[in-house]
Amino acid sequence: MTPPPSAGHRRTGGDALPERPVISTPPRLHGAGFRRAERERLARQPGLGLAGLLLVVPVAALFAFGAGGAADSVTLFGPLITFALPAVAMVAFWWQDWPGSRLRPGWSGLTDTLFIAATAVLLAMAGQVFIGRLDFDGIFDPTPGPGHAALYPASLPLAGGAFVAMLQLTLVCERRPLRRLPPIWAGIAALVVSWGAGIVLYAVAVDFRAPPGSGLTSASGPVPGAELGAVLVLFGAWQVWLFVVWRGWPFSESGRSRLRIVSANVVVVGGALLTYVLIHGPGGVSPAVVNAGAGCFVAAGLTVGMLFEGVFRSRLGPGPERLATLAATAVLATALYAALTAYADTLDWTRPTSQEWVGHTALNAIGLSIILHVAVGRRWPFGDNTAPSNGAE
């Protein structure tokens, strides 16, 4: 088994990938240097997480309001961030923050963020061509008007499907079978495979009626785009629960890779689908509310499991710690949903709706801000930027 990086060694894109992602590798399989650095980092919680909020909150507010208001921010940033997320996963979990890893802390995170932003624009352009035609107003104007191929909301199932596939390949499948490739090529291959999965899902499943003259192409699948989007966010919620909040437990305890991967895929896929069937069917919850609620769970899970990682781990045993992290995630998700909904209900909405803004703010604004700070920026300027974090490789 390829050992994880030792403390003080900042890996570059040329180093081999470990057998498992660091975040879901049991502590006993880590080297002594990694465990020592982790203990030192966990001892700094919750102060380390509270300091991170000084960066996370302003960036999240920018994504929630920065396009000229709440509604315009959903229609402009929502698609662009969703297209960016597979690139974020590629840089953080496959490239170990390369190319920024070659630079000093601070410049490293900024370089990676600029690379991710440029990649997001290119992916958005490619996605726009797939669902219709290239139209820069439809990408960069939150209200492009009639006759323009607007990304929102038509492209969200495509972009969301690619990101869910990327996380499934990265965390649930432990980067197999691509991890044996050199990391740069493995990350590119993962991005291509995930996009292929997103394209197939869109082509097979999405039901979309393009507005006349918009330049978009109608799709005649069995599932409305809003419903598919809600299911995809539930996939993300299960992935975050099991592989960020619980760091791969219980699957990570098995020494047999095939058993870990098959059982994890069954639970994540089955759990997400069953959750949607129960709350949308007998529960009668609309896709927009499912999207918002699951998005708040994802944001809460990233906050507890990534931003404040170890706040319970260094103080409780494994069993109580898992219960505490799940309970904290559920309480924070409920509070976040209630607060965002209460605020959104004070505004006037036509398109998008208040619940769509809640989902965007939780999933895209807060979620991306946490990932950029912890997994890409390595908690700069508050953390040890040479030591690996359980929030990333």
What are the defining features of this structure?
single chain; 393 residues; 61% helix; disordered C terminus; disordered N terminus; globular; mainly alpha; 3 strands; three-stranded mixed β-sheet
Provide a descriptive summary of the structure in words.
With 393 residues, this protein is mainly α. The protein has helices at 32-42, 47-65, 70-94, 107-131, 136-140, 156-172, 183-205, 225-245, 257-280, 287-307, 318-344, 354-376; strands at residues 206-208, 219-220, 223-224. The protein has a three-stranded mixed β-sheet with strand order 2-1-3. Helix 8 runs parallel beside helix 10 and helix 10 (287-307) crosses helix 11. The longest helix has 27 residues, at 318-344. The model is unreliable at 1-13 and 386-393 (pLDDT under 50).
Entry summary:
The protein is 61% helix and 2% strand. By secondary structure, it is an all-alpha fold. The chain starts with 31 loop residues before the first helix and ends in a 17-residue tail after the last helix.
Helix content: 55-70%
Order of helices and strands: HHHHHHHEEEHHHHH
Largest sheet: 3 strands, mixed
The total count of strands amounts to 3
Mean pLDDT: 90
Rg, Å, rounded? 20 Å
Question: How far do the termini sit from each other?
Answer: 16 Å
Strand content: under 5%
Compute the number of helices.
Answer: 12
- Give me the secondary-structure category: mainly alpha
The general outline is globular
* Residue windows where pLDDT falls under 50 for at least 5 positions: 1-13, 386-393
